[in-house]
Design goal:
AGP_Transferase; alpha+beta; Aminoglycoside phosphotransferase domain-containing protein; Phosphorylase Kinase, domain 1; 149 residues; Kinase-like_dom_sf
Length: 149
């Protein structure tokens, strides 16, 4: 007999409410819903596509995606909770040694190098990982990009 995950039996909004009560918010749109999972949302589809693409094509660690939900037209991503501390806070408060800062910078440089080495499946397009529209706050609040070369 296959087990049905309890998360699928409880409506999303109730899971988020229970998570807020038990664990509090991790961020403005991230709720811890169990010891090992969080739900982030609302999200944009290109974010989900990018996480999946990076997980499939690089060794960069990304949280494992367990499920996705659509609620009132918005996307929510249930993913693995990875315990850690806030890098920005640790960096600004001087909690890191010079060696730790150097190690972090080297690791980030390597990750950016991996991302830059990815070859798009189609050349000459501006699009999401699956050739859909993108949302880039640097160029405005509307979706842009195209899957057409």
């Amino acid at each position: 007999m296959a087990l049905f995950p309890i998360g699928k039996m409880i409506p999303l909004q109730l899971r988020l409410w229970i998570g807020r009560k038990l664990f509090g918010l991790l961020d403005s749109n991230v709720v811890r819903v169990s010891w090992h999972r969080v739900i982030k949302g609302p999200c944009q589809l290109p974010e989900l596509e990018a996480m999946q693409y990076v997980a499939q094509h690089t060794t960069i660690p990304v949280p494992k995606i367990h499920s996705t939900y659509t609620y009132q037209g918005a996307l929510y991503i249930e993913m693995e909770h990875i315990e850690g501390s806030n890098l920005a806070v640790a960096w600004m408060e001087g909690d890191l040694s010079a060696d730790e800062r150097t190690t972090i910078m080297t690791e980030l440089k390597d990750y950016v190098g991996l991302l830059r080495s990815l070859v798009p499946s189609t050349q000459g397009v501006v699009a999401s990982a699956r050739h859909g529209h993108i949302l880039d706050c640097r160029i405005g609040p509307q979706s842009s990009g195209t899957a057409e070369p």
